[in-house]
Design brief:
By secondary structure, the chain is mainly alpha-helical. The chain has two domains: 94 residues, Endonuclease Iii, domain 2 (Orthogonal Bundle); 113 residues, Endonuclease III, domain 1, CATH 1.10.340. It is 61% helix and 0% strand. The chain has 13 helices and no strands. The protein starts with a helix and ends with a helix. Bound molecules: iron/sulfur cluster (SF4).
């Protein structure tokens, strides 16, 4: 698939996405939640379903919504608040360390560069890109499992990992589309283009899809 058709497909899916549940982090950004809350929820969301992330975030933010108050909780208290997100014990440690670093190094603010975000525990490129995009409106491409799978199924990229996908997308796709990719393709991946048994019969971009055309030709 070339860039023109990819952008056409993305635009079609963007319109369609009004019928699907938006990813929980996009919902937070739409409600103009603080960069701190977006960062914390993004850390919680790794390997965790959106519904679970939403409930855990709500519980945690009912007790703490600043780095200063988060660092005052002990690890056991944080674990209890964020359970049952995936890897809750590791994430509780990361959250406490993150709060300390934010207070001690970044004047209690969430930094807004990739380099600085990567100094926070539990923050890799995927999380950092999402925070840059959602909390600071800086063009960034967050490649999670959905973006990786779908861009490869469409044959817009041909990559073996999310990291390589990000690099290829940054090269091929105009910057103005960077931030919408994650919002649109995550909702599409959760609803239609699922990992197993994608609902191709309901898909509005079927005719452009390499995967579909290969299987059904
Ligand atoms: Fe995904 Fe099927 Fe649509 Fe292709 S046709 S994008 S595999 S849902």
């Amino acid at each position: 698939m070339n860039t023109v058709n990819f952008i056409k497909s993305l635009t079609i899916l963007d319109k369609e996405s009004q019928n699907w549940n938006p990813p929980v982090l996009d919902l937070m950004a739409a409600h103009e939640e603080t960069p701190f809350k977006i960062l914390i929820s993004t850390i919680l969301s790794a390997r965790t379903k959106d519904e679970v992330t939403a409930v855990a975030s709500k519980k945690l933010f009912s007790k703490t919504n600043t780095p200063e108050s988060l660092r005052k909780l002990n690890i056991k208290q944080i674990e209890k608040l964020i359970y049952p997100v995936g890897f809750f014990k590791t994430k509780a440690k990361h959250l406490k360390e993150t709060a300390n670093i934010l207070v001690n190094t970044y004047f209690s603010q969430v930094p807004n560069t990739m380099e600085e975000l990567l100094t926070l525990p539990g923050v890799g490129r995927k999380t950092a890109n999402l925070v840059l995009s959602l909390a600071f409106k800086i063009p960034a491409i967050c490649v999670d499992i959905h973006v990786f799978r779908i861009t490869n199924r469409l044959n817009y990229v041909n990559t073996s990992s999310p990291g390589k996908t990000e690099i290829e997308l940054r090269t091929k796709l105009p910057e103005k589309y960077w931030s919408m990719i994650n919002r649109v393709l995550v909702a599409f991946g959760q609803t239609i283009c699922r990992p197993v048994s994608p609902k191709c019969e309901k898909c509005k971009i079927q005719k452009h899809c390499h995967y579909y055309n290969t299987i059904y030709s």
